[in-house]
Every structure is written in C-alpha cells, then in structure tokens.
Amino acid sequence: MIKITIEQLVTAIAHEPGTGSGALGRLFACGLSISAWKANRKTAAACEGEFQSFQKKRDELIDRYGGQCVNENSLTFQDPEKAKAFADDWAALMAVEIEIPGEPLRMEDILTGQLRQTDAHVLRPFLVDE
C-alpha cells in the first residue's frame, strides 16, 4: 500500500497550466516493468477515485460555510467566522491519510516516459527512497 495524505495526492494530481497533466499523470503515462505494473495496475484508478471523493468533500465544505469561488484558486466568505471554520476543516481534510493500492516504484521500474526533475519531490509517496 502507498500511504499518502489528501494534500500530497491533490498536489501530485494538480494540473499545470499549459501541460494538461500533473506529476501523477506523467508517472501513470510511463511504461513500467512487468512486476511494477502488476503491483500498481490499480493505483491510477484508486487515485482518481480518492480525488473525486476529495472534490465532493471540498464542495460540501464550500457550501456549508458559504464560500464563493473567485477563480480556480481562490474563495471568498461573507462571514469571517465561517471563513475561519472553513480553514480549520480544510486543514483537517488535507491532513487525512489514505492508503492507495500499489507499491512505491523504483526508478529502474520506469522503462519509458518522462518525468520532470521537479516531479520527484511531488511524487515522493509513489517512489522508493534510494
């Protein structure tokens, strides 16, 4: 199992402007050795399911506290107390630890595809420290 926080998952999935894919998308696009593929064949679907659950919970929190989306990365609240309560619940949500089926990959298991140098930090829960 891969242990990861919601925040780490969201960061790994986050789409980068102009690329259409975040670090996790680039990792899942890579060709893997047979043993790595076998151990991780359900990992992408599990990550997507967890991300969808996160998005639903995020939307529930925004609605509960009366948040309004200003843009893709910004919210506003009419009531400062509700903004504080939202921030507290948001921090708790992002700290939730989940388990994703699969095993962390070794770099030699990645046979094809390209990861960016900066991806290693974001993908740390999905990679073996060597």
Short description, anyone?
The chain is of the alpha+beta class and 130 residues long. It has helices at 6-13, 23-28, 34-40, 43-64, 80-95, 119-122; strands at 2-5, 31-32, 68-71, 74-76, 97-100, 110-112.
Explain the overall architecture.
A hairpin with a 2-residue loop joins strand 3 (68-71) and strand 4 (74-76). This protein is of the alpha+beta class and 130 residues long. Helix content is 48%, strand content 15%. Strands 1-5 form a two-stranded antiparallel sheet. The chain has one domain (2-126). The mean pLDDT is 87. It is elongated and about 55 Å long.
Shape call: elongated
Q: Roughly how many Å is the radius of gyration? A: 17 Å
- How does the helix and strand content classify structurally? alpha+beta
Percentage of residues assigned to helices: 40-55%
Number of domains: 1
Taking the alpha carbons of the first and last residues, their distance comes to 18 Å
Features:
single chain; 130 residues; 6 helices; 15% strand; elongated
Write the layout of secondary structure elements.
Blueprint: E1 2-5, H1 6-13, H2 23-28, E2 31-32, H3 34-40, H4 43-64, E3 68-71, E4 74-76, H5 80-95, E5 97-100, E6 110-112, H6 119-122
Antiparallel strand pairs: 1-5, 2-6, 3-4
